[in-house]
Amino acid sequence: MDGVRRALLCSRNAHKARELQRLLPGWSVEPLVVDDYPPETGASYYENARAKAEFGRAVAPADRWTIGEDSGLEVAALGGRPGLQSARYAPEGAPAIARLLGELDGVAERDARYVSELVAISPDGAEVRGTGSLEGRIAGEPRGSEGFGYDPVFVPAGEERTVAELGDEWKSRNSHRARAARALLAALAGSLALVVAGCGNSDPTVQRVLSRFFTHSARARALAARFPHKPGAIPCVLHSLQATCSADVSLVKPDRAVITLTEAWDHGAQAHTWFFFIRQDGTVESVVEEGAASP
């Protein structure tokens, strides 16, 4: 066992598969190759993403996760279009950008946002989801060479450059899909609250990584008292509120790991998650926090 979750992205878009491979540490993401996909007829990004993941679950190998993703660009001046129709608005790239800029010709109001919805279904049929969005505006002309889709004309809020100018490294931290991926990881960690307290992986490598993490990091030692020291969930108390604290480990070969610690309360409806990116000797390289502030 190597601790890697193997998944198939149910999409024809090779860009998205490569991006999700970077955004989901501890996962191996490959595109699902099939002759045809069912039409996207959902009334929301979630419905479309879920339908893709369910389609994949029906045809994928039994030991694979399946991931459905739906995303779109919503432009205020166009009443939210292209929205759910973003992928069918025009051929991806220059043709779609040309149509968009043509519709906005002479329009001063150019506020827009990217939206992404991810749905993952496990080999045993459990579903987790994550949603992410990125506010911004549409530039007057394409700029930049990185990214894909509408990135050459999308300027994120607080920035002056387009996503294509800001580059793939910026995008891997801040894009709508990056935010959806972090939300998905948080939901996956939070779902451990539904398992029997103290259950989890007994793989010796995973146990060793967790032990080193709680020993070598001052920040981890401050959290150690209320989190389990093996993957799983245990009851905990957050400022007198009954909650569940869970731990998960994703091993990233050859010597990296991601420790996910999640506090969940209100029966799992609210959660706060830490993603510790560490070396297998326990040294913390970086930390990302997501979700509501703990009570």
Quickly describe the structure.
This protein has eight helices and eleven strands.
Q: How would you characterize the overall build of this protein?
A:
This protein is α+β, with helices and mostly antiparallel strands. It has two domains: 187 residues, Alpha-Beta Complex (Maf protein); 97 residues, no CATH class. 27% of the residues lie in helices and 32% in strands. The strands form two sheets. The protein has a six-stranded mixed beta sheet. Strands 7-8-9-10-11 form a five-stranded antiparallel beta sheet, with helices on both faces. A hairpin with a 4-residue loop joins strand 10 and strand 11. Helix 5 packs across helix 6 and helix 7 crosses helix 8. The protein is globular and about 60 Å long. About 3% of the residues have low confidence.
